[in-house]
Amino acid sequence: MTAQERYSSDSIQVLKGLEAVRRRPGMYIGSTAARGLHHLVYEVIDNSIDEAMAGYCSHIGVTINADNSISVMDNGRGIPVDVHKTEKKPGLEVAMTTLHAGGKFDKSTYKVSGGLHGVGVSVVNALSERLDVWVRRDGEEHHMAFERGKTVQKLEVTGSAKRTGTRVTFRPDPEIFTEINYDYDTIANRLRELAFLNSGVTLTINDKRAGLEQNELFCYKKGISEFVQYLRGSRRPLHNKVIHFATVKDEVEVDVAMQYSDGFSENVFSFVNNINTHEGGTHLTGFKSAVTRAINETAKNKGLMKKVSFALSGDDVREGLTAVLHVKVKEPQFEGQTKTKLGNSEVEGVVKTVVYECLGNFLMETPSATRAIIDKALSAARAREAARKARELVRKKSALESSVLPGKLADCSLTDPSLCELYIVEGDSAGGSAKQGRDRSFQAILPLRGKILNVQKARVDKILSNEEIRTLVTAIGTGVGQDELKLDDARYHKIIIMTDADVDGAHIRTLLLTFFYNQMRPLIEAGYVYIAQPPLYRIARGKEEFYAYDDSERDEYIKRLQNGGKSKKGTIAVQRYKGLGEMNPDQLWRTTMDPSARTIHKVELEDASMASRLFEELMGDEVEPRREFIRNHAKFVKNLDI
């Protein structure tokens, strides 16, 4: 019988309850690695945040327990425990065991919700080895327990309760997740963000794991105004007071905070119902349009454009701007399950009107701040014109057409970008080894001389006047900058930073990442940027050799050679690599460039707001934030050249 003949209704599987979640967890939480693991925490927190947005919750606490389980508690109304009319089960059990079940679908319960398109706490239950829920409401405390999504302890009253709220404790299933190890900073950053977005709500985190004990409390009375100050970091503000306005129009709540600084980068972050919309959407389009119009009209009305023959562009008026836009929408329409782009067309007009009117009023009422903002925009416009000329030197060309590339870029023979890799290496020595050791069909090599410009401190015209950066941009082929970069023109879909395993190499890698983040961020968002991990040690005795990537691996190989090595003669030689040039081409290929054996790490952008702050902290003009960072993190350093 053929496969076609065997295909009948019996071939169609019906997965009951939460079976589908356990069968295909990646469809619901993205991955079964660290990102998916932390997504479970966010799903539970989001339920509590929905209570806070509805005005019923003022405190949310997260605890990382000693066994790496998670507890999330709130003082909201408590999940309903009465029997559901159609499901004939307690509301708590329905919420925990049924996909797409929850109060957020009922607008009389939640006017706005961040989890409407989310996977829900039922998915957390399905992917947990054990989940316990305690609910305090109606004067009683109730408890239920589940294992891998199935009820193992029915709803029972465990005592009396004077207050209301919910506590969920879950232990992720080791059968699902590759590693269960929560990162304190990742969760803390999300809680801090939520505290900024929900003024007055207190969020706490407490890590009880042995040797990792720490805790923090986040509460911001001024909400996103404080968020803007936090994100601005050490950059000097052009006006002391944060521009902040919040209003409701056509049932859309618009909350905006913005402040200009003397920096050159633009940091505008948008949120919908507490969800970070990384890809923007209609609300962000309306915001940008309104800012451009308001500043242009104010500059014209105040006679500040008399000597200028052009209008200020969006990039001009947003240079040095740090802003947070948070809208609350009753029926948000997100593009895709990841909820990173808002699609509601009506929101654009609402945001555009609100921002234009409110920002326009501020500009008319504060002449000193207005003059500083417009002067900076005019300066940015002049730099833009200089940058336009500089960009002409780095437009996409083939290696043969460019007068810069010959002698630097050793290109590959394949032309399909999805198959091609570009290795960015430091210096001619490492470049020579990489060129000889590579697979010429799909691996291109671009050696850079010395350390590139720190773009955190420079305008785009200065950036593009740097020879090494021009060479890099031309090789990649996409152009540079928000308006100019065309991702589809990328000549390589793997851009691999390969630097020496020493302090200088780490600095060069950081400078390159700063450049990619500030000027070519779509490459990172598309997953095109990687970091190579060359070995730190070569351990050999006789004809046997091993390569180790950290001290523990080195010690393991030494022990192996001492006890069970094939070579019985000779001493064990341990070589510490400080530069890629110390490896011969064959060694470099086998350890760092061979796709079947190498280790490369994809650069991923999980939290853009925190990333922007960190880049400014580490790469900006102010020294004190760097000193403080070093002071706080010195104890975590593993490899330090002396």
How much helicity do the residues have? 25-40%
Q: Strand-residue fraction?
A: 15-25%
In CATH terms, what is the architecture of the largest domain?
2-Layer Sandwich
Largest pleated sheet: 8 strands, mixed
Core attributes:
642 residues, alpha+beta, Heat Shock Protein 90, Ribosomal Protein S5, domain 2, Rossmann fold, 8-stranded mixed sheet, 5-stranded mixed sheet
Secondary structure layout plus pairing:
Blueprint: H1 3-6, H2 19-23, H3 26-29, H4 34-53, E1 59-64, E2 70-74, H5 91-97, H6 121-126, E3 128-137, E4 140-147, E5 150-160, E6 165-172, H7 184-197, E7 202-207, E8 214-218, H8 224-232, E9 243-249, E10 252-260, E11 267-272, E12 275-276, H9 282-301, H10 314-318, E13 321-328, H11 345-365, H12 367-391, E14 421-426, H13 427-437, E15 443-448, H14 460-463, H15 467-476, E16 494-498, H16 503-519, H17 521-525, E17 529-532, E18 537-541, E19 544-548, H18 551-564, E20 573-576, H19 585-593, E21 600-602, H20 608-619, H21 624-633
Helix pairs in contact: 4-7, 9-11, 13-19
Tell me what you see in this structure.
The chain folds into three domains: about 20-220, Histidine kinase-like ATPase, C-terminal domain (Heat Shock Protein 90); about 225-390, Ribosomal Protein S5, domain 2, CATH 3.30.230.10; about 395-535, Rossmann fold (3-Layer(aba) Sandwich), CATH 3.40.50. It is an alpha+beta fold and about 650 residues long. Helix 13 (about 425-435) packs across helix 19. It is built from 21 helices and 21 strands. The strands form four sheets. The chain has an eight-stranded mixed β-sheet. Strands 9-10-13-11-12 form a five-stranded mixed β-sheet, with helices on both faces. A hairpin with a 2-residue loop joins strand 3 (about 130-135) and strand 4.
